[in-house]
Amino acid sequence: MKNTAVNERRKSHKIYVGDVAVGGDAPITVQSMTNTNTCDIAATLKQIHALEAVGADIIRVSVPTMEAAECFKTIKASSHVPLIADIHFDYRIALKVADYGADCLRINPGNIGNETRIRSVIDCARDRNIPIRIGVNAGSLERDIQEKFGEPTPEALLASAMRHVNILLDHNFDNFKISVKASDVNLAVNSYRLLAREIQQPLHLGITEAGGFRAGAVKSAIGIGMLLSEGIGDTLRVSLAADPVEEIKVGFDILKSLRLRSRGINFIACPTCSRQEFDVISVVNELEQRLEDIVTPLDVSIIGCVVNGPGEALVSTIGVAGSKTKSALYMHGVRQQKRMSNEHMADELEIEIRALLAREGM
Ligand code: SF4
């Protein structure tokens, strides 16, 4: 289906986090952050591999201590996607993880300390061709900016962001991306809008501290979705007080919803009512789990009756429209002779989907 939902994408510089392009014409990437103790290497690697399995393009790992930096070295060696080392204040940790192969440094230059320290981190990033990610957060604005603006406002977040940006630019370093996050959706969106006009570097989108799974997913979808629909944003992280794996799934769901990027199955399912001829909800839940391994973009419509079933099936790769005892099956919008058992819908639909992928080499 043609994408008419979004404005032309803002033209940003392309940078590389490891071998993953961010910005320019690169696909909008989806990232998350581990929430294990970085020094528990086994647990952190397990989580990284779980995030890789659901499609994480980039993963951030906190490195709060020198001990964690040593652990980061081992973790980096066993990770398949680029890792961003998240560092606050301590420039020595930044230098250490750069040595150990970090693909990006998440550190705010204004928080590093004196000029010698700032220069050492920037020179190190330049020598190793590692980007820096500036992360401005409404909850931790600099004291003088708080005093000047009175409260976190889009202008305050922009002022903080530009302070860090200008330090990098003053050192002739433009290999960076930046976020201006807030837990308030309107504040975050308006801050990104201001920043998007000021710089050409890629923007990392996020609604920070968005909340638990449901509320956080909704806030993130609205905030990130508004920006993406305006053409703003090159990479995103959905911040949830939930399993980071869910952050990646929700991130892809946001991109799928705007048809900006596809991965795996896009389920179209009706909300169900008394007309449903099979148990739509359980079939969808079952298939979402069983088909998590599929990465090929595919629209699958699962509709409980003929009111909307045939129409949705026409624009889906595979669709079912509920009918008495056996339901109608559609492939690429064409109704098939074969009918699907309402009772064994999940099993039969899984077989059809996997067979179609194999048949069409998808
Ligand atoms: Fe009800 Fe049919 Fe609409 Fe589903 S498609 S909600 S079963 S009327």
Can you give a write-up of this model?
The chain is an alpha/beta fold. It is built from 12 helices and 15 strands. It folds into 2 domains: 15-257, Dihydropteroate synthase-like (TIM Barrel), CATH 3.20.20; 265-359, Sulfite Reductase Hemoprotein, domain 1 (2-Layer Sandwich). The chain has an 8-stranded parallel β-sheet. A 5-stranded mixed β-sheet has the order 11-12-13-14-15. The chain has helices spanning 41-53, 66-77, 91-99, 115-128, 143-149, 154-170, 185-198, 213-229, 244-257, 280-290, 309-314, 345-359, and strands at residues 15-17, 20-22, 29-33, 58-62, 83-86, 104-106, 132-137, 176-181, 204-205, 235-237, 265-269, 298-303, 318-321, 326-331, 334-341. The longest helix has 17 residues, at 154-170. It starts with 14 loop residues before the first strand and ends with a helix. The protein is elongated, with a radius of gyration of 23 Å. The site of iron/sulfur cluster (SF4) has 11 residues, from loops. Iron/sulfur cluster is lined by residues 270-273, 275-276, 303-305, 307-308.
Compose a concise summary of this entry.
With 362 residues, the protein is an alpha/beta fold. It has helices at 41-53, 66-77, 91-99, 115-128, 143-149, 154-170, 185-198, 213-229, 244-257, 280-290, 309-314, 345-359; strands at residues 15-17, 20-22, 29-33, 58-62, 83-86, 104-106, 132-137, 176-181, 204-205, 235-237, 265-269, 298-303, 318-321, 326-331, 334-341. The protein has two domains: 15-257, Dihydropteroate synthase-like (TIM Barrel), CATH 3.20.20; 265-359, Sulfite Reductase Hemoprotein, domain 1 (2-Layer Sandwich), CATH 3.30.413.
